[in-house]
Amino acid sequence: MDLPQLNPVEARVFGSLIEKALTTPDYYPLSLPALVNACNQSSNREPVLSLGETEVIQALDLLREKRLAYVTSGGTNRVAKYGHKLADLLFLPPAETALLTELLLRGPQTPGELRTRASRMHPFADLAEVVATLGEMAARAPPLVAIQPRQPGMKESRYAQLLASEARPADAGPADSPATPAPASDRVAMLEAQVAALQKEVADLRAGLAEFRKQFE
């Protein structure tokens, strides 16, 4: 299966729909004005955009052609409302959905940034869980994320989603470098973090089993 390729506006609209479905389910699906506001909000967005209704409608039409969005009206809905169809494309667990959404909305980020910013959509126990989840997303066929080379002066590598190009609208400043294979040291670090997360999971299972056995002693 090939992943659909989204332009920057499609990525912002798609990410905003997923985010609002997770964080404000009582107000989802979204009306067009609510969706425009979600795309342009100043918090949890990078870059901050100023999209008009026409641009958002055009992106919605493209997403609907790719079967990634839907519109509903009639009945109790007196105005058209819009939602996402991520589950029709990929069946992702909550942790992967939260990370993918955050990457769509804010571009490439470090695991530490992702843990902090995605916690409003899914709580992560620790950094190792974030890195392990990113590793699972990178190991999918086709992969959903890729690790970027470590930037000069930065201690951590950043991860980028692969649904949309990293090209930004003309008024949004310089684009990030495309995702490329990480150095061997970064791949080793990612694998070590995954192993640590698995070891912790096994330890927790053993502790739970020990507590269970005590009930019968």
Topology:
Layout: H1 8-23, E1 30-31, H2 32-40, H3 53-65, E2 69-74, E3 77-84, H4 86-89, H5 94-106, H6 111-118, H7 127-138, E4 145-147, E5 159-161, H8 184-214
Antiparallel strand pairs: 1-3, 2-3, 4-5
Helix pairs in contact: 1-2, 1-3, 1-5, 5-6, 6-7, 7-8
If you had to describe this structure to a student in words, what would you say it looks like?
With 217 residues, the protein is mainly α. The chain folds into 2 domains: 8-89, Orthogonal Bundle (Arc Repressor Mutant, subunit A), CATH 1.10.10.10; 94-214, Arc Repressor Mutant, subunit A (Orthogonal Bundle), CATH 1.10.10. Helix content is 49%, strand content 10%. It has helices at 8-23, 32-40, 53-65, 86-89, 94-106, 111-118, 127-138, 184-214; strands spanning 30-31, 69-74, 77-84, 145-147, 159-161. The strands form 2 sheets. It has a 3-stranded antiparallel sheet. A two-stranded antiparallel sheet has the order 4-5. A hairpin with a 2-residue loop joins strand 2 and strand 3. The longest helix has 31 residues, at 184-214. It is globular.
**Mean pLDDT over the full residue set:** 84
Strands across the major sheet, in which order?
1-3-2
Helix content: 40-55%
Strand content: 5-15%
Taking all Cα atoms into account, the compactness measure Rg is: 19 Å
Put simply, the count of helices is 8
Structural class of the secondary elements? mainly alpha
Number of structural units classed as domains: 2
Q: How far apart, in Å, are the first and last alpha carbons?
A: 52 Å
CATH architecture of the largest domain: Orthogonal Bundle
Q: What general form does the structure show?
A: globular
* CATH evolutionary superfamily of the largest domain: Winged helix-like DNA-binding domain superfamily/Winged helix DNA-binding domain
Regarding CATH, which class of the largest domain?
Answer: Mainly Alpha
Instruction: Return the CATH topology of the largest domain.
Output: Arc Repressor Mutant, subunit A
Total number of strands: 5
Profile the largest sheet: 3 strands, antiparallel
Low-confidence stretches: 167-182
Order of helices and strands: HEHHEEHHHHEEH
